[in-house]
Design a protein that fits this description.
Blueprint: E1 4-10, E2 14-15, E3 24-25, E4 30-31, E5 36-39, E6 42-43, E7 61-65, H1 66-76, E8 89-92, E9 104-107, E10 110-117, H2 122-130, H3 138-145, E11 150-156, E12 158-160, E13 166-170, H4 178-185, H5 204-216
Parallel strand pairs: 7-8
Antiparallel strand pairs: 1-4, 1-8, 2-3, 5-6, 5-12, 7-11, 9-10, 9-13, 10-11
Length: 217
């Protein structure tokens, strides 16, 4: 089966006192049927709650693989629906964690670029617990797996829909994958200098963090 988007998912802020400031979350996503617009700040109908730590052009869209949802479903003993990890694009047929930072995907008439990685947080852990999953040490378990899924920037706005083919239209000339970036920021900080190999595709905040680390070693 060729790589494709299984589901397009969006969410808006809802009150969630258990989140902490800003006491709202958009992690609960629902599937969108039909074609939908994608702009530089994300998918129409999707809205970030915590704009301090999330969103913006380098985290416009979050992708997670159906295969990885199934992996976790097997471990947790309960089916996980598309979008439940807060992803906007549920993909199938491509290992999104082996994608290179700066790699570009064409979906529908939009083009996305792999930009950053999702770092698990308290909200994610609480969400899993409150929706009936075994969330014991969830952040540690999710981190140890090293398969976070990428945040994407939108380099060509367009329209997408569930079922659209996902075509890799550009691969950069380096070997820094989504998993490499994730491990650099979580379990193996010695990998951080390698992120500079990404070049211009590295988000400014990420570059700043890497350069500060490199200056200390």
């Amino acid at each position: 089966m060729s790589p494709h988007v299984v589901s397009v998912n969006v969410g808006t802020p809802v009150d969630a006192p258990w989140v902490g400031s800003p006491f709202r979350t958009s992690i609960s996503k629902h599937r969108v049927d039909g074609r939908i617009d994608v702009g530089t700040l994300g998918i129409e109908g999707d809205q970030v709650s915590d704009t301090k730590d999330h969103g913006g052009p380098h985290q416009a869209v979050y992708a997670f693989a159906r295969e990885d949802l199934d992996l976790w479903a097997g471990r947790l003993g309960k089916e996980i629906p598309d979008g439940h990890f807060g992803e906007n694009l549920t993909t199938e047929g491509i290992d999104v964690n082996e994608a290179l930072v700066g790699e570009r995907w064409k979906v529908g008439t939009a083009v996305f670029e792999v930009a950053e990685v999702r770092i698990p947080c308290h909200t994610f852990s609480e969400w899993m617990s409150r929706t009936g999953y075994d969330a014991d040490k969830w952040i540690k378990r999710f981190t140890a797996e090293g398969r976070p899924g990428p945040y994407l920037r939108v380099v060509q706005p367009g329209q997408i829909a569930a079922g659209d083919e996902l075509s890799v239209v550009h691969k950069p000339d380096h070997d820094v994958t989504v998993t490499t970036m994730f491990r650099a920021f979580t379990t193996d900080r010695a990998l951080l200098p390698r992120l500079l190999d990404v070049g211009d595709a590295l988000a400014p905040d990420t570059r700043d963090a890497v350069e500060k680390y490199a200056a200390r070693i």
